[in-house]
């Protein structure tokens, strides 16, 4: 049956997508206003493509065709178009059909689908993107299968269908290939979709970071201002491509020695990237000129957007819509710029003075320009090198997710550092971060706990502790400050990962060694007794001691502590050379240096050109071996393959405080442990007794007629029935509005029983006396009932119930909630004080694997109570893990389930009992992370 809302324009089907080559297109429903666009589009399609579409010569569309292809009911007949610059580049449509192949309406669940892509845009992945979106639309409208007739010579279109990952059937009938696609998403179709997403988004970032030509729009003739500064940085860095300066009033051929034009349109050559540095009111004209010229991407340095208030937010939305309408991508507005140190590019399209940094293994992303300046300065001062740098400003389009997609496949980036103020899409971020962290470290500092002014990207409503837990699940190294971001990044970029938590400490100060020892214990490391070399120790003494520590099998990392000598500068150079020599001999373990008021040592260790020993008898320091990295399989130290040297590789990081050095090592230890543990990421188990179809039917019946914004709390009976379909049994609870009713309930259930109040203000509050257990006789039950009503209130206020007793154990709580951005989050803790007062709760994203769940129950601080603390019997943790996996499956299979609370879950030595369940349901959102690829819109 069609309802009125189905007949209205489905705006939620509109989406911006990134294509295979990194450009963008807009997908939207075709409307009656598109007749002219459709005719123009068809005229630009080749005769061969028209033949493939209609199986016969079809030079032009008749008026009847145009009407048919532009008039849709958005239910049984749907048409979508991919557009760039407002013009069609491809179309797709489906028509619902019945078993006889003729037009039909619901409940028919099959549709015929057909595509047409303009020849100039074939090979860009347009048809694949359209198939994802038309498939999602069809599922929303109750269609389960697509059928298509394709000529055998149309191999490109056949490949679009066969590569989609859906279950399909293929046959040859009457001279054409007959294809049937089951539209239910599969693991393969999801993998295909995400692989295409990764390649497209990585390519879009690569086009921004490695342009063949750059135009700077807004270069003043006086040489002052942002545009002129950006132009000088590009020029002075030695950018390898073509460089153009744009000033609408210039008459000169050159500005700052760069070829000058009044407009991008005057450049008689392609422009890949444009930097826009004009006032906000003039940016739309500049964007239009770039779009008409075919520019691929923009970096908007101009301010005056969302950071300036509501009017600026609307201006930013208009900017994003305009940029995407031309198929371009945008960094900014209010951006600081981008840097790419690749030797064949050498791009400094930023406001960072040139030279900005050396080439090295660190990728850096920031949302804040000011923080970006500070981080660049700190990394450069301490000798680190960058592969790339992106400061996204207001992050209207290109975000940290896009940069992660690029870094994942960028061999030059071996450590990813990110300063984030918001996580606009935590679910996607953690998914991408987990994949990236499996092959290279991802370190994140979050600068805000709430969405700050200047960012229209919606923040998550999840508590910060929950976000940290989810980042930890993804293998992200979460730090609290930008100082820690640099500290940890330096260690990971210059040293191998530790094989374990054992730390050797050596140096020329006993007191500094003890401070380092204490810091190791605080971070959960296992320090060895510090080796005191005494204040008389020479650089050679340090070299010998470090070499012995690195050769010892008793430690996994070494911290060297040093205090000043009288001749600091000379001995600092000698000591730096001695430490490098020892590390070069034994490169398999990480080494960090703690120096107190010994800045010369830090300078010597970070120097690009390593100083030679001043005395002739002393050997020159050997060049350090390349850092022994972690292999993709988790191998560390000497077992990992070596890499080529670059700025940062093999350098020994130096820290002015023991706590900072130890913190960096501790984060490296925890990350290495995560890498080893996640070499096998686990699996989502299949349970044969799950009735997924029955649960779907029950939810559909419960939500029938409910408004889209209605949230329903299921009755106890409905909740029990839904959980039972997933193998989760909740004991029967009988109401007891009177003492006689309580006695009858106990007679039905059998003694012993429990008498509990269920009023909201007393629920789960055994400390208030609202729960009485082990009642073995009717007389005892009546006495307790009387005490409860006299103490706490009338029965109609207390809502008492009777429940059969279950085996005693540890009371726990299992919950799942839906965050608009993060999706379903599964939570676990011990019931009562640990979770409610102390916040001792752990979290994982759904769907959770068996490995995720095993880590979940062991990650709370009170976990020892589950494993036999102080001689108590350990509880049945396998049964608890199975329960959590079943809850994860329930909320993952059915997005209608927006909230689950099982409290308490009593875990005994054998088995467990779910004593109470609350479930909230609502109509699912139109789009989820499992839906078709789409860029965010704000």
Task: Walk me through what this model shows.
- The protein has about 950 residues and is of the alpha/beta class.
- About 35% of the residues lie in helices and about 20% in strands.
- The strands form 6 sheets. The protein has an 8-stranded mixed sheet with strand order 1-2-3-4-5-6-8-7, sandwiched between helices. Strands 11-12-10-9-13-14-15 form a 7-stranded mixed sheet, with helices on both faces.
- Helix 14 links the parallel strand 21 and strand 22.
- Helix 15 packs across helix 20, helix 17 (about 540-550) packs parallel to helix 18 (about 570-585) and helix 18 packs across helix 19 (about 600-605).
Task: Give a short summary of the structure.
The protein is α/β, with parallel strands linked by helices and 938 residues long.
Give the SSE map.
Blueprint (H helix, E strand, L loop, with lengths): L3 H4 L7 E4 L5 E6 L5 H9 L3 H8 L8 H8 L6 E8 L2 E11 L12 E8 L8 H15 L4 E6 L4 H8 L5 E6 L2 E7 L4 H23 L3 E5 L8 H12 L4 E5 L7 E2 L2 E4 L11 E4 L6 H11 L3 E4 L9 H16 L3 E3 L5 E4 L6 E4 L7 E9 L2 H13 L3 E7 L8 H10 L5 E6 L5 H12 L4 E5 L17 H10 L3 E3 L2 H13 L7 E6 L2 H13 L3 E2 L3 E2 L6 H13 L5 E6 L5 H18 L5 E5 L3 H8 L47 E2 L2 H20 L14 H12 L7 E3 L2 H9 L8 E3 L3 H11 L3 E5 L13 E5 L2 H15 L2 H4 L1 E5 L5 E10 L3 E8 L2 H4 L4 E5 L4 H9 L18 H17 L3 E11 L4 E3 L2 E6 L16
Parallel strand pairs: 5-6, 9-10, 9-13, 10-12, 13-14, 14-15, 18-19, 18-20, 20-21, 21-22, 23-24, 23-25, 23-26, 26-27, 27-28
Antiparallel strand pairs: 1-2, 2-3, 3-4, 4-5, 6-8, 7-8, 11-12, 16-17, 16-19, 29-39, 30-33, 31-32, 31-33, 34-35, 34-37, 35-36, 37-38, 37-39
